Amino acid sequence: MNGRAREWLREIPCRVGEIAIDRGDAGRWILTHRDDRARAELHPHDGAEAAVELARYDDAGNFRPLKTAPNLRHGWRLVLADEQEVERALDFFYPARLATWRSWRAGELRTTPLRETLERQSGMYRVTAKITETQANELVANFCRSDGGCLRTILWRRDATGTLPSTLLPAEKFDPQHDQTGRGEAALPLLCQEACNLLVAASREVVKSTPAL
Ligand code: SF4
After folding, report:
1. CATH number where 171 lies
2. Ligand 1 pocket test: which of 193, 198, 200, 206 has the largest number of ligand atoms within 8 Å of its C-beta?
3. Ligand 1, residues 101, 146, 150: which to mutate, most atoms within 8 A of Cβ?
């Protein structure tokens, strides 16, 4: 590795979410799905822009609205010219996650409690502020869980008093040192500093489906 290597590329293979990053020849870098590192027959791609399409659909061809969902497609190998290209590709796979990690490492990341996120909603999402504590506890557990939901590490709390986002999630879900893919390897965490739009939309569905008392 040359002296300019990014601080997050110290460990090779570097793992980010479901992606493994290895060194190639002539200073190039190779990205694959972590499940595919040992596979010989992978469809070749090159250039960071290829990540846009690779991140768009899952193995079954379904659109992936949540880029940090654990359903990145398999079977590809992405060759990148330098570390800058690796960062660009990661930004297509996992938008803004590298910048968020850097901000967190610098102690500058601001997190927003779920209640604050819901209370600032307007229009058709204003109703989300009515979600009950029990409903929020269950929704976050189902929607954000790492096995089938989302690979981000949750840093936000449910309210300003520091209530856990969900008592139904394991403690590892809130631990940036934990590999959320369940492989138990060192991995750069995909951090969640604030409830995403999809969780807000799901909150609306929960509230709307609650029978009026
Ligand atoms: S709120 Fe965060 S952890 Fe939950 S699904 Fe959205 S991005 Fe993932």
Report:
1. 3.30.70.2320
2. 198
3. 150
**Average pLDDT rounded to a whole number, residues 182-191:** 96
Residue 107 covered by a domain: no
Q: Give CA–CA dist 139/126, Å, rounded.
A: 17
Q: Is residue 68 part of a domain?
A: yes
Instruction: Provide the pLDDT for residue 5.
Output: 61
Query: Does residue 140 sit within a domain?
Result: yes
121 lies in the same domain as 198: yes
- pLDDT band at 3; cut points 50, 70, 90: very low
| Rounded Cα distance, 67 and 94, in Å | 6
How does pLDDT run across 29-70, given as a tens digit for each residue? 999 999 999 998 999 999 999 999 999 999 999 999 999 999
